[in-house]
Design brief:
The complex is a heterodimer of chains A (309) and B (254). Chain A has 309 residues and is α/β, with parallel strands linked by helices. Chain A has 11 helices and 14 strands. Chain A is 37% helix and 29% strand. Chain A has a 6-stranded mixed β-sheet, with helices on both faces. In chain A, strand 4 and strand 5 form a beta hairpin. The radius of gyration of chain A is 23 Å and the shape is elongated. Chain B has helices at residues 8-28, 31-49, 56-72, 76-85, 89-93, 99-127, 135-156, 165-181, 194-200, 204-217, 224-253. The two termini of chain B are 29 Å apart. The chains are: A alpha/beta (309), B mainly alpha (254). Chain A binds chain B through residues 50, 53-57, 75-76, 78-80, 83, 85, 87-94, 98, 102-103, 105-109, 150, 154-155, 157, and chain B through 1-5, 8, 11, 14-15, 17-19, 21-22, 25-26, 86-88, 90-98, 251, 254.
Chain lengths: 309, 254
């Protein structure tokens, strides 16, 4: 067991009937790391988080959190973690304050500390004025912020966030992301499940991409982009409509996609394609409005990896 | 960092009181739940007794038995499916609490509700001049029986592992109502035929009604110690079996 790791997963497997939800996955998350777990819908992200947080039991494999085995020492691992589950809810018939008090009691937080933590968190997330209101009347964004407050009541060493910004407004998204950064800066390990590439790129130290229950790759966002040099592209726009088929025929262009009023051309060598685009513009009396080379985005890398796997 | 208390069981026991408080706030403190808990046994009882020439002392033990039974089992069976449907069960399961902690909390809340509401038929009895021959036995009987019925309430929701409260309530009504009719509430056990006595002996409510008759009317069918012993045995069996089944099935609800 490596004491440098906050999470160690080995061959973790889970089936739902005939379907393999998580297929012998292995990975490690270092202490203090902000680790992203990316994948398309039904890739196995939430199942993995649910296994790690003790909600469901794996059929095969082992996992430990801060060196405690998730099966044999589940109470200890859960005591050290904070969770924002994707599907779970706060109690809508309780006030925000009562939800936090309940969470504090379930984690064994002493009464005085419970009250201090709840006040501090509610103020930080802008919910203090609504602390005595029933959660039933909260917006999605407010509920999500409350879930984050609940996850932080026990001052966790590791935080599992399953789609924490999903369905919330832009302002709340920014607040939640800023809080995640702050928490990570203060030493907490964060395991972030998301399908938002921009979020993963902006927050995570490393990213694992999971698809069909298998880990496709694990690396830093920057290195993932560098690895995918084959995903370089040119974005070009003309003053008149040019068909995708016509551009696809140009030697050196692997794929052409229409993106609004522009064309995205995936190429191996951008400079080799520039001349050909200019030739086409001249021969067809087209004016080039804009021409840019683009490095692959994390989304491009993600789609490529998902397609491969 | 807030490390777990060395005394795991004491700490878990404490946390089951957090579940109790949550249940009281969400499920038991609602007006309709309290009124329903009082009215169902009261009207069921009235519908049977009106027009019959029975002494009032004979009414109160049955009414008390039904009230304790119905109130202690009224909400308990529906809590888990409700929470599964409201997506709060996942939150509880992912907290540092054992499955038995969660269900002990549910039992405590059903118990508390049952004990508090059971006082009402005693008040009714006292106000119409019914004397209580042995208040200590009655008090201990109410405590043990209500805990037994509260444990029974979590057994009622143990299987099938559904997230539909209506299904569980229907199933529990199918079990609870026949039990009321075989437990010596409407007809004292000594007046039942042999087969009736045999059937009534499998119901925990029989032993509480018998204890209540002993405390109020001064006579009972079974020895008092047997009533207590059987109620205690039922409590342990219900609690252990219910928690074992829930441990196996709870994750199927999430």
């Amino acid at each position: 067991m490596n004491t440098e790791n906050a999470v160690e997963v080995s061959n973790l497997t889970k089936h739902f009937g005939e379907v393999v939800a998580v297929d012998h996955i292995s990975f490690q998350v270092k202490k203090g790391e902000l680790f992203g777990f990316l994948g398309p819908n039904a890739a196995g992200k939430t199942t993995t988080v649910r296994m790690l947080t003790g909600v469901i039991k794996p059929e095969e494999g082992t996992a430990s959190i801060l060196n405690y085995d998730i099966l044999r020492e589940g109470l200890k691992t859960r005591q050290l973690t904070g969770i924002v589950p994707e599907m779970a809810n706060a109690y809508v018939d309780l006030s925000a304050w009562d939800n936090l008090m309940l969470t504090g009691e379930l984690y064994g937080v002493p009464k005085k500390r419970r009250r201090e933590r709840a006040s501090k968190l509610l103020k930080e997330f802008g919910l203090y004025e609504r602390r005595n209101h029933l959660v039933r009347g909260f917006s999605r964004g407010m509920k999500q912020k409350l879930l984050l407050c609940m996850a932080l009541m026990n001052e966790p060493q590791i935080l599992f966030l399953d789609e924490p910004t999903s369905g919330v407004d832009v302002g709340s998204q920014r607040l939640i992301r800023d809080m995640i950064r702050e928490l990570n800066k203060s030493g907490a390990t964060v395991f972030l499940t998301t399908h938002n590439m921009e979020e993963a790129n902006a927050l995570c130290d490393r990213i694992a991409i999971i698809n069909h229950g298998k880990i496709a790759t694990i690396d830093s966002p920057e290195r993932l982009r560098m690895r995918s040099s084959g995903l370089q592209s040119i974005e070009v726009s003309f003053d008149k409509v040019v068909s995708v088929d016509e551009l696809s025929k140009i030697h050196g262009i692997r794929e052409a996609r229409k993106m609004g009023d522009k064309m995205r051309l995936y190429v191996d060598e951008p400079s080799a394609v520039f001349d050909k685009l200019i030739d086409i513009a001249r021969s067809k009396r087209l004016k080039i409005i804009s021409l840019n080379t683009l490095v692959p985005t994390l989304e491009d890398v993600f789609l490529e990896l998902v397609k491969e796997s | 960092m807030l490390l777990m208390d060395n005394n795991l069981y004491r700490e878990q026991f404490k946390r089951s009181f957090a579940i109790l408080k949550k249940n009281v706030r969400i499920y038991y403190s609602k007006g309709p739940v309290i009124i329903f808990g009082l009215l169902v046994p009261f009207f069921l009882f009235l519908s049977f007794y009106i027009g019959r020439n029975m002494p009032v002392e004979a009414l109160i033990p049955g009414l008390l038995g039904m009230t304790a039974f119905f109130t202690a089992t009224s909400v308990g069976p529906a809590i888990v499916p409700w929470e599964a449907r409201a997506k709060t069960l996942e939150r509880l399961v992912s907290s540092p609490v054992s499955i038995w902690t969660i269900f002990l909390g549910d039992v405590f809340s059903s118990f508390l509700f049952g004990v508090i509401v059971s006082v009402s038929p005693i008040i009714v009895g006292l106000s119409i001049g019914v004397g209580i021959a042995n208040p200590l036995i009655l008090g201990l009987g109410i405590i043990l029986a209500t805990f037994c019925f509260a444990s029974f309430s979590i057994l009622l929701s143990a299987y099938p592992p559904t997230d539909n409260p209506a299904s569980v309530m229907m199933l529990s009504s199918m079990i609870k109502f026949p039990l009321v009719f075989i437990s010596g509430i409407f007809i004292p056990i000594e007046e039942l035929p042999v087969w009736g006595k045999t059937i009534s002996s499998i119901s925990p409510l029989t032993y509480f009604t018998d204890l209540a008759r002993h405390s109020i009317q001064g006579h009972s069918y079974y020895p008092m110690t047997l009533d207590f012993a059987v109620l205690a045995a039922f409590t342990i069996i219900f609690l252990v079996v219910a928690i074992k089944i829930h441990e196996r099935t709870i994750r199927k609800r999430i």
